[in-house]
């Protein structure tokens, strides 16, 4: 099937899909989602708005505070239908807003009390991706990001002690594609990694035309 055009009716929020000059679908569609057919694969995919509304924000905040909470309890707390909660969860997961429901771990609680940030300079002909594969093989490397500036990659790493930190750094720079490393040891955490304040702000910034379903 080859998609030829899309037609929208804002008043009734309906979309008319035409293919080969004839209407094949006419149905109400929610604001905040536009679906299209990919001719190459013949499958329908969603192009979703990045807006969050107040219900999204409350749902995410509840899940962050109580990861074990069920859909039924979420619907009771939020005072909305269970189906609405499930639909919101599905949509947020498809969009990549919610990426998982796993536990949050504190490395220091399992013996890794030293946190450091390492800036790496790499051989440019090696490329970032192959260095990333090497870094991913080291369990103490929690994150690695390509950056601008004098360095090429910034890593957040953990270790059991300062002596163990040296071992981790040696393991990192053992790869021939890494020229040098510069390390900063974190003394104390002033702001813990968080996203809930950002979710709250995003929901307040939503415009009426971006209302999620």
Can you tag this structure with a few keywords?
3 domains, alpha+beta, Alpha-Beta Plaits, 6 helices, Arc Repressor Mutant, subunit A, three-stranded antiparallel beta sheet, 213 residues
Overview of the structural elements:
With 213 residues, the protein is of the alpha+beta class. The chain folds into three domains: 5-48, no CATH class; 50-104, Winged helix-like DNA-binding domain superfamily/Winged helix DNA-binding domain (Arc Repressor Mutant, subunit A, Orthogonal Bundle); 107-185, Alpha-Beta Plaits (2-Layer Sandwich). Helices cover 30% and strands 28% of the residues. The strands form three sheets. Strands 7-8-6-9 form a four-stranded antiparallel beta sheet. A three-stranded antiparallel beta sheet has the order 1-2-3, with no helix packed on it. Strands 4-5 form a two-stranded antiparallel sheet. Helix 1 packs antiparallel against helix 6 (196-205) and helix 2 (71-78) packs across helix 3. The two termini are 28 Å apart.
Topology, please?
Blueprint: E1 5-9, E2 14-19, E3 22-28, E4 33-38, E5 43-48, H1 54-65, H2 71-78, H3 82-94, E6 114-122, H4 128-136, E7 141-146, E8 153-159, H5 162-173, E9 178-185, H6 196-205
Antiparallel strand pairs: 1-2, 2-3, 4-5, 6-8, 6-9, 7-8
Strand pairing plus helix content: what structural class?
A: alpha+beta
Quaternary state of the chains? single chain
CATH class assignment of the largest domain = Alpha Beta
Q: Counting H and I runs of at least 4 residues, what is the number of helices?
A: 6
Apparent shape = elongated
How large is the radius of gyration? 24 Å
> Remind me, CATH topology of the largest domain?
Alpha-Beta Plaits
Strand order in the sheet with the most strands: 7-8-6-9
How many angstroms separate the termini?
A: 28 Å
């Amino acid at each position: 099937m080859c998609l030829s055009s899309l037609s929208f009716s804002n008043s009734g929020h309906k979309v008319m899909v035409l293919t080969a000059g004839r209407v094949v679908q006419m149905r109400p569609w929610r604001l905040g989602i536009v679906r299209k057919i990919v001719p190459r694969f013949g499958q329908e995919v969603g192009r979703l708005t990045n807006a969050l509304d107040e219900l999204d924000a409350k749902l995410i905040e509840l899940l962050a505070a109580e990861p074990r909470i069920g859909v039924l309890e979420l619907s009771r707390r939020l005072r909305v239908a269970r189906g609405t909660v499930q639909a919101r969860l599905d949509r947020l997961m498809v969009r990549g807003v919610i990426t998982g429901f796993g536990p949050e771990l504190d490395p220091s609680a399992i013996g890794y009390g030293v946190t450091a940030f390492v800036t790496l300079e790499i051989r440019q002909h090696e490329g970032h991706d192959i260095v990333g594969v090497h870094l991913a093989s080291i369990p103490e490397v929690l994150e690695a990001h390509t950056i601008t500036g004098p360095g090429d990659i910034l890593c957040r790493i953990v270790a059991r002690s300062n002596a163990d930190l040296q071992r981790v750094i040696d393991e990192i720079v053992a790869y021939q594609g890494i020229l040098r490393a510069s390390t900063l040891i974190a003394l104390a955490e002033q702001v813990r990694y968080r996203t809930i304040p950002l979710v709250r702000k995003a929901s307040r910034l939503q415009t009426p035309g971006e209302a999620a379903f």
